[in-house]
Fold each of these.
Amino acid sequence: MTQEEAASRSASESASRAAYKSTYIQVNEVGPRDGLQIEKAMVDTDAKVALVDALSECGFARIEVTSFTSPKAIPALADAQEVMRRIRRKPGVIYTALVPNVRGLERALEVGTDELNLVMSSSETHNRANLRMTREQSLAELKSILRAAAEQGPLPCNVSLSTAFGCPFDGDVAPTQVLDLALRLAEAGATGFTLCDTTGMAYPTQVAELCQRMETVLPGVPVTIHLHNTRGMALANALAAWQVGVTRFDAAAGGLGGCPYAPGASGNVNTEELVHMFECMGVDTGVALTPLMDIVRGLPALVQRALPNPLLAAGTRLHTHPAPAWLAERFPAAS
Ligand code: COA
Ligand code: ZN
């Protein structure tokens, strides 16, 4: 290949890559579920409802309100039905909830849930620890949920595939493991998939590759990316996903979050950091940062622990400061 040919090829490659990059993203705020499920301080029902209501005013596409899981497994969300019943539903916002089994579906339907987020792990040991089932048992359970949901009429059923980028017990997870589960669940009626980096093991090139392979095997099926910042790579991973065409992101206000069955798992990617980064790049998130930052300021009191937050401390990128007073003396002519 001549240098000219190489230059033209690289220009057309970057043009086609650029065409992937969307000018908007949708943010799914998962703090009330992924965040609160792991907090030691019990957040009372009124406060949960108030949190979701406040988040509803920020412009999120979706809010994951709670999970209809066993109260023995996740005691912090034992009041799921009451929360879902009492929230003020803002038109245009999709209110979702995590559902691991048919019992969870029944509870979700009783109180009205716009979209279900079914869950199973990509890796065997994490599935057994988190859901007390083998992956084959989970698959059968999720297929029963999908069948029962279809009988209720159109009810979107996304599936979150945990540990899609690595398992804290089994180590690396082969992309084929994830793709195979997604294919089987799509055949059974799943309407979308969330690739979850449950314990923050993902790295950017890996994220890009798996997202691209999902698009190849299930073209047009919506993919959401769910990142944890355990090893400081969450924003880099989000950027990598966006660069290959992903437009849906899970995130938790204040970086709340974790997985009760994944030792060492820390918070989700901070919603405010994700929104700030994309807005800086001119990508529309739909989310208003000012009311969101007000909510984030109140989170330490809600969960009764400090939540270090660089963005709150520094302010947004163009938050400027008065120049030092001595500058006027040192440069009197400058005006
Ligand atoms: N909602 C409410 N209660 C439920 C339930 C649900 N979705 N599923 C099961 N239960 C109850 C059962 O009725 C039973 O109650 P009992 O002891 O009073 O009879 C008890 O929980 C145990 O039921 P069983 O079917 O044996 O469940 P299990 O103990 O094998 O646990 C799950 C399986 C999936 C229910 C449980 O592991 C779970 O909820 N995991 C969620 C994990 C999670 O959310 N992790 C974080 C997100 S990735
Ligand atoms: Zn998570």
Amino acid sequence: RIAYVNGHYGPLSEASVHIEDRGYQFSDGIYEVVALRNGRLSNEEGHLDRLERSLKELRIAMPMHRRALQHVMRELVRKNKATNALVYIQVTRGVARRDHPFPKDAVPSIVLTCRTLPKPSPKALAEGVAVISQPDIRWGRRDIKSISLLPNILAKQAAREAGAYEAWLVETDGTVTEGSSTNAWILTKDGVLVTRPRSTSILPGITRGQVLKLAQEAQIRLEERPFTLEEAKEAKEAFMSSASALVLPITKIDGQPVGEGIPGPLAKRLRELYETYLAS
Ligand code: PLP
């Protein structure tokens, strides 16, 4: 396995950054995860747009031109002989003596890895997965893909300890924001596909954006609005979206079956539409 660190390719096992990197000390950085499927990077431009936006919001400079980064991604894939993988990109504010304000003249650090694509198991796809609810205790700028992920980690761990696949994060007003590493969707009792609109409360998932487009093109009834956990528990269907899971049906919320308790036709259809889009 080969990694890329600040201009150098080398064995992943030996790749390292300085202990005073601000990513390590302050989580002062951002990341992206791009899926490689059948040798092609999925939604590459969308991920790079979001990477640039996250950096801009934190006033970290792009460590290299976009074209150069695209070249590094391809080189890394080639060196790893990968065809189905997740390319991880992390940019931090750089190395400096530990002090909260932005350091003067710090050079952003950039790290890329290429690891196997963790695909949902055939069983998860056939039967759907369980989610549990957890309070959303994250900060107010969830639209930035920050490497500061403690609340997400704690929520995911709680899910795994409860035998569930994902945690749905719930605001104090009872609405679901998103999953710990996925966006959240329901098909309401009245047959409307609902997902939360873009705001600072959620990460604008690249998969979410693409699923919205596909649903619009397929003329599926659609509303971008917040929904409550209660509404989700009474929904006909529920599913999650992300670069690695694509569209994955949810058949249990907090131990309660969703709809018939089996993956619904809409989630299946959207997954197929997405797979067709990726292959096109
Ligand atoms: N929401 C959160 C909090 C995430 O961390 C992720 C992805 O890692 C997503 C949603 C899904 O985003 P994408 O579709 O771009 O993978």
